[in-house]
Amino acid sequence: MKFASQPLWLLILAAGLAVQTATAQEAQYSQYASPWKTPWDYQGERGHSHWSELDPAYAACNRGKQQSPIDIRNARKADLPPLAFDYLSEPVRYVINNAHTIRVNYHDAPGAGSALVVDGKRYQLTQFHFHRPSEELIAGRRYAMVLHLMHTASDGEVAGVAVLLRAGKANAAIGELWKHLPQSEGQLAAPELSINAADMLPGSAGYYVYTGSVTAPPCTEGVKWFVLKHPVEVSAEQIASFARLYPDDVRPPQPLNGRVVLESLE
């Protein structure tokens, strides 16, 4: 009997640890904390031209050679692997206003949750956020907004997907998200809100790809950017709702410095 009961004790212990872990994880993000130790801005004394001066951790911002965003021109056509969006409907929990954009974070265990799969490599969705107007330019043209979906692979490689947004009909998923916009820095609980990020993607997954960086401090390089060629429509009212919070949260286009941008055949 002593040995027969041991697996039960192990199961009880494991269940207890799982509850403690889940509770600890919930506590980590149930209270808002700015992701930046050193404040920055897009304009002025803490603006984009001074980011590297603000904090040694931001050194790449004005000194790096593979910075984002870029103006995509003269991309080279290539037979590229398709993008497979393995996205799920997931609870949002909190909508975050981090003083620079509106953002949603994901807290799935490694290997779980939503993911982008490219050429057999899985990049797990970690967060998405918005900019107005678009940070990316296509032959000098900006779009009304852009959605950045950020992913991380098991080896640490970061992949960003840029979805260009243009004025048109309302997007239902963004409409639901906009009902929970924090009007100042912080986060707003959205306990009944679930979103499938696939509902913010275009019907066609043709894309440009290049190596760049995150577009805000610390401007970490080595990000694989997939810029979708076909825009998604959002309503003028949805654009205006975001603009009331952030009318111009964009970094200027950065030099290519010899980088090659590839374009899918689709």
Describe the 3D structure.
The protein has 266 residues and is α+β, with helices and mostly antiparallel strands. It has a single domain, classed as Carbonic Anhydrase II (Roll). 20% of the residues lie in helices and 34% in strands. Strands 2, 3, 4, 5, 6, 7, 9, 10, 11, 12, 13, 14 and 15 form a 13-stranded mixed beta sheet that branches. A two-stranded parallel sheet has the order 1-8. The protein is globular. The N terminus is likely disordered.
Query: Could you say how many structural domains there are in total?
Result: 1
CATH architecture designation: Roll
* Element string (H = helix, E = strand): HHHEEEEEEEEEEHEEEEHE
Rg from Cα: 20 Å
* Range of strand content: 25-35%
Cα shape: globular
- Output the number of helix runs: 5
Please mark out the parts with pLDDT under 50 across 5 or more consecutive residues, or reply none: 1-6, 17-25
User: Average pLDDT, to the nearest integer?
Assistant: 91
The major β-sheet equals: 13 strands, mixed
The structural class is alpha+beta
What is the top-level CATH class? Alpha Beta
